[in-house]
Amino acid sequence: MPQLEEHSDKSDVEVAEKFDPASYYEQAAGRLVIDPQQAKVQFGEALASTLKLSPDGSTILWPQPADDPNDPQNWSDRRKALHLLVITLAASIPDFDSGIGWLVLPPQGWGGIFWVMLMRRYGRLPVLFWTQVFALAFLVGATFSPDLATFTAMRCLTAFFGCAPDLRQGLYIVTDIFPFHLQARKLNIWTFGFIMHVHVSPFLSPFAFGFLVARVSWRWAYGIGSLYSAVVVLLIGLFMEETMYDRHLDSDLQQILPGIQYRLETLIGITGYKMAKYRSRWSEIVWACLNVVWRPQFILVAFFEAFVFGFSVGINVTNVVFMGSPPPVGFEFSQFGVAGAYATPILAVILGELGGRFLNDRIMKFTVRKNKGIFEAESRLWACYAAMPLFICGFLTLGAGIQHLNKAALILGWGIAEVAVMVNTVAVYAYCNDCFPRRQGEISALLNLARVLGGFSVAYFQVPWATKSGGIQTYGVEAAVGIGLFLLAVPTVQLKGRYFRVRHNIMI
């Protein structure tokens, strides 16, 4: 027996020496051992004893932080919170600006795929900085445009450059600086900003500026939007740091030098240009989105999310039409009344953020206990089962409110629908992120493209359909489509997701 124990200990040491935490985190995408006791069973005592744990010792940190203070995973909580705050503020800019005039959103969808390529090659910070600088410049151009053609061109360019920090940059930074077990919670905060980006930030602008433009020129609204963008650019320049840290490289290559010169070089992209030769090749980067989009564990939930999110975008665009139109089509709200009504989705998203955070934490802890310390990515999707009944309830109530011109039903249905979309979107993003830990940017760009293609056409048919056939039929059919796709996609992924992840894993 002593000889067997000695042999076992020696084997454990050999396994520990060969174990690469970074490779494990990527290869085991969607199925991670996060309980320290279970790690002893899975990896052996010697290897388990080398793994770094959360401060309370209850959870294994994935990805494993490097022995380097420059690793963003090792940053202080205050430093991480500052970055999360700035990127959340930046995430609200694109549709806040678009919501000023509800014009020209589609360039954001395709633009995101382009910015992801640059982020992977040259880093997060310089792409974030320069895109926001150009977006600000074009928004200023829209503010002072002499004619409609110039104004439209400026808005398109603002949307193209401004979309970088919302879904792509934000998801990258959240996963760069926070360990796995905190990512869903932090994604909930960031998604609060990104749903603000799609649901609240375009509402903050009509909510605030609806009162303003009733009194003064529309240029004041765009001027104030430009000032907000300028403040965010200033915050990025002063406080944001590069969060991209490649654990496959020597820490000496990623050393942060003191002084303003290095800081400036990192901000404008000189450092990223020098580091590019150590990172993914262009051939990999260009094909990365196509390498993700066909994976069944992604495309099923992406198609489902495209319609759920898309229909909610549709109601956000068309509600203003019904609120402002005279009876029997609409409510004939005054401009002040329309502006005030936009407080509804703002409150709804706040409630969704708080409820979603609690729900995601509970689901993860329960499923990890049930699986004896092992996390399975498909457990994230249980939150969709809570979201979709709310989705149906919200859409049907909203449809009844529009058809019967009931103000209470309009407000209540609108709010419930936004809470449902908030909870569902966090679950989908968290699941896809867990399945593809090296493809956060591609995941967010593709999901963003899906919701753009699925949502911004809805406004063209929703108003005439509801006017002709009534809100109950219109929103009832949309709710039925949403629940049908849910029943098709989510249970299938939950049942076959592990098989899909093993068979269709990505390692490049």
List the helices and strands and how they pair.
Layout: H1 2-18, H2 21-27, E1 31-33, H3 36-43, H4 45-50, H5 77-91, H6 93-101, H7 107-122, H8 124-143, H9 148-162, H10 168-177, H11 180-212, H12 218-239, H13 260-268, H14 270-275, H15 282-293, H16 296-324, H17 335-341, H18 343-370, E2 374-376, H19 382-403, H20 407-435, H21 440-455, H22 458-469, H23 471-503
Antiparallel strand pairs: 1-2
Number of domains: 3
Kindly report how far apart the N and C termini lie: 44 Å
The CATH C-level class name of the largest domain: Mainly Alpha
The global form is globular
CATH A-level architecture of the largest domain: Up-down Bundle
Radius of gyration: 24 Å
H and E string:
HHEHHHHHHHHHHHHHHHHEHHHHH
Briefly say what this structure is:
The protein is mostly helical and 508 residues long. Helices cover 75% and strands 1% of the residues. The chain has three domains: 49 residues, no CATH class; 204 residues, MFS general substrate transporter like domains (Growth Hormone, Chain: A, Up-down Bundle); 220 residues, Growth Hormone, Chain: A, CATH 1.20.1250.20.
